[in-house]
């Protein structure tokens, strides 16, 4: 039988035949290339001949020369598609010197530069609540433009394309503005630029609100170019670790709002429509695009890393030596047609402001731009109540927090009384529960008969009206409220740089650390005064000292507003407990607890921390 062999693994005749075949094929290809090149060299340059003939004479119609020209013209038309595209020349429009234009209304003061037709300064003049202007960390008017990031990655309302060299041209072009100096809104400002083949027109319209309108068209050689109008990244209020960590990209697509942290943002990633709105934001401010044509709009995102080691402010955590790299997320909008029409909101993330701004075609408003975290729904309504108290009852945000805490604790009081009643019932049946546990003590935890013990205990509790979850109700209420306040406090722009007593900012830690000390004392008194029926003595001791230490450490590094809310709540709880301890219910609970404590002490058990007289 013939053996199959692989010719690529042998040096036999098959390899020689393969080499001969390849050489022959190569020879044929080279020969064809030589013949084709020789034929092209021999052909006359017909388009040139036609041009010369047309310029040399003007033959009459029907003459041999005329027929020759007609034939030549036909040849030119046939060869035109293969020729290089003809550049469309437009008049050069370019400024000779740098200039600035300032647009101003009651809410902002925007400074444009004709270099790049972009924004170099964006100062907000009026806070949504509380009066005054927004200030930076040094007490100066806040510039929303992150100057360090803008100088490296681009200024607001600059243009971005997929062509890096074109981006450089657009950023450095000297546009001709329609006006210079100071303009009062309502106003319109147009920037034009052309270098002969590239033509750019940027028109911005301003009114009395935070929203402006942008009309951008870029063409090259007469063809539209998709150019994104950008907010390349960062805001001027980002000067500490929390400020940079709060940066994100926000979008509303098909009625769904999405928030993407800066570290997860894709660079030069695109999101297709229908886009209701999209942009970039941090804790307090946002730059959001609301396209006129959501269906044909495309949103792009950018992410760059910035070394802020020389500019970052040390906050609750120390900054290491060397480079401190932070992600700077940016966003831009374009239309698939190449002609982009969009409104742009740049301003504070205040609920009242955001609710009043809607996307095109009666789309969703910007309220969902606010993200209060996992307990966001609770946090939102907490702030609405806090804002109402600030507007109608207390002009200072610190006192508003105190009043809100009092109001919440009054609402929780019935649940605390119910918990005390349930705890008293639990103490009354505690000896019977201990007897049941002793009866089944000899059985292992995995023994099925342990289920009988649990069934007997549950029946005993049911017969005596004891709710096994009754003691958890206040905790199930207070903890979500605490976490919601924790998530809400650092995200509301109204409380930014809010003063209270010796504190200059309720969103920053207490500079004198007085509140954390008060927090430790109040938390200890809560544990000391509140009876804990059925809780093991060792667990009570641990809670009495560990919980105050944890709460003190937490408030040492967190915003003073949370410490006020927490500490005031503790003192209200202490007062309520002291009053309840003097009632018949409280006296009976103490008597039962003391009797149980003496019984345990007689058996050699440790003492317990119970409610004080």
From TrEMBL:
Gene3D superfamilies, A to Z: 2.70.98.90
Every Membrane insertase YidC/Oxa/ALB C-terminal domain range: 397-581
Membrane topology label: Multi-pass membrane protein
Entry's Gene Ontology BP terms: protein insertion into membrane; protein transport
Keyword presence, Calcium: no
CC terms in the record's Gene Ontology section: plasma membrane
Broad class of the protein's primary localization: membrane
Sorted UniProt keywords: Cell membrane, Chaperone, Membrane, Protein transport, Transmembrane, Transmembrane helix, Transport
GO molecular function, one term: membrane insertase activity
Pfam families: 60KD_IMP, YidC_periplas
Coiled-coil annotated residue ranges, if any: none
Composition skew (Polar residues), residue ranges: 48-71
Compositional bias annotation for Low complexity: 72-81
Compartment annotation: Cell inner membrane; Cell membrane
Membrane insertase YidC N-terminal domain sequence ranges: 102-384
Region (Disordered): 41-81
Spans through the membrane: 18-37, 369-390, 396-417, 466-486, 564-580
Domain of life per record: Bacteria
Subunit text: Interacts with the Sec translocase complex via SecD. Specifically interacts with transmembrane segments of nascent integral membrane proteins during membrane integration.
HAMAP family: YidC_type1
NCBIfam families per record: yidC_nterm, yidC_oxa1_cterm
Primary role: Required for the insertion and/or proper folding and/or complex formation of integral membrane proteins into the membrane. Involved in integration of membrane proteins that insert both dependently and independently of the Sec translocase complex, as well as at least some lipoproteins. Aids folding of multispanning membrane proteins.
PANTHER family cross-referenced by the UniProt entry: CYTOCHROME C OXIDASE ASSEMBLY PROTEIN COX18, MITOCHONDRIAL, OXA1
Family: Belongs to the OXA1/ALB3/YidC family. Type 1 subfamily.
Protein's name according to its UniProt entry: Membrane protein insertase YidC
Organism for this UniProt entry: Edaphobacter acidisoli
Lineage: Bacteria, Pseudomonadati, Acidobacteriota, Terriglobia, Terriglobales
Gene: yidC
């Amino acid at each position: 039988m013939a053996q199959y062999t692989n010719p690529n693994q042998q040096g036999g005749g098959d390899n020689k035949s393969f080499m001969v075949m390849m050489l022959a094929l190569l020879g044929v290809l080279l020969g064809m290339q030589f013949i084709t090149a020789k034929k092209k060299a021999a052909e006359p340059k017909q388009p040139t001949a036609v041009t010369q003939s047309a310029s040399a004479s003007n033959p009459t119609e029907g003459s041999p020369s005329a027929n020759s020209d007609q034939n030549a013209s036909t040849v030119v038309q046939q060869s035109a598609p293969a020729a290089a595209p003809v550049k469309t020349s437009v008049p050069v429009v370019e400024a000779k010197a740098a200039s600035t234009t300032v647009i101003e209304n009651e809410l902002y003061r925007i400074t444009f530069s004709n270099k790049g037709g972009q924004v170099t300064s964006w100062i907000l003049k009026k806070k949504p609540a509380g009066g005054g202007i927004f200030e930076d960390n040094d007490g100066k008017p806040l510039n929303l433009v992150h100057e360090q990031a803008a100088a490296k990655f681009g200024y607001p309302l600059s243009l971005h394309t997929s062509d890096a060299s074109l981006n450089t041209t657009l950023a450095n072009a000297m546009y001709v503005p329609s006006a210079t100096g100071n303009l009062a809104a309502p106003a319109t400002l147009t920037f034009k630029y052309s270098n002969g083949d590239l033509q750019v027109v940027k028109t911005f319209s301003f009114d009395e609100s935070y929203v402006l309108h942008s009309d951008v068209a870029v063409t090259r050689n007469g063809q539209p170019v998709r150019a994104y109008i950008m907010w390349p990244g960062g805001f001027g209020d980002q000067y500490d670790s929390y400020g940079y960590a709060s940066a994100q990209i926000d979008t509303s697509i098909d009625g769904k709002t999405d928030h993407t942290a800066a570290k997860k943002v894709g660079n030069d990633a695109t999101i297709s429509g229908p886009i209701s709105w999209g942009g970039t934001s941090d804790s307090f401010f946002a730059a959001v695009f609301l396209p006129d044509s959501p269906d044909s709009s495309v949103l792009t995102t950018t992410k760059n890393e910035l070394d802020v080691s020389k500019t970052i402010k040390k906050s609750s955590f120390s900054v290491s030596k060397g480079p401190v790299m932070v992600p700077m997320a940016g966003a831009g909008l374009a239309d698939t047609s190449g002609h982009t029409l969009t409104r742009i909101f740049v301003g504070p993330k205040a609920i009242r402001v955001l609710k009043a701004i809607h996307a095109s075609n009666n789309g969703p408003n910007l309220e969902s731009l606010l993200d209060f975290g996992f307990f966001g729904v609770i946090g939102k309504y907490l702030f609405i109540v806090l804002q109402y108290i600030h507007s109608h009852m207390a002009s200072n945000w610190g006192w508003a927090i105190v009043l809100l805490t009092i109001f919440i604790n009054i609402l929780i009081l019935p649940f605390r009384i119910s918990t005390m009643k349930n705890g008293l019932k639990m103490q009354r049946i505690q000896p019977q529960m201990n007897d049941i546990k002793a009866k089944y003590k000899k059985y292992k935890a995995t023994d099925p008969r342990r289920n009988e013990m649990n069934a007997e205990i549950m029946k005993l509790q049911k017969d005596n009206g004891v709710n096994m979850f009754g003691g958890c109700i206040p905790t199930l209420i207070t903890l979500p409220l605490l976490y919601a306040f924790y998530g809400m406090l650092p995200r509301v722009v109204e409380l930014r740089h809010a003063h209270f007593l010796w504190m200059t900012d309720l969103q920053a830690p207490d500079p004198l650390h007085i509140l954390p000390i008060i927090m430790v004392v109040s938390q200890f008194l809560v544990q000391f005064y509140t009876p804990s029926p059925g809780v093991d003595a060792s667990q009570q001791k641990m809670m009495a000292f560990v919980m105050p230490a944890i709460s003190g450490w937490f408030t040492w590094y967190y915003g003073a507003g949370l410490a006020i809310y927490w500490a005031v709540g503790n003192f209200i709880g202490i007062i309520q407990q002291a009053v309840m301890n003097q009632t018949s219910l409280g006296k009976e609970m103490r008597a039962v607890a003391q009797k149980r404590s003496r019984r345990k002490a007689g058996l050699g058990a440790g003492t317990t921390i119970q409610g004080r007289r």
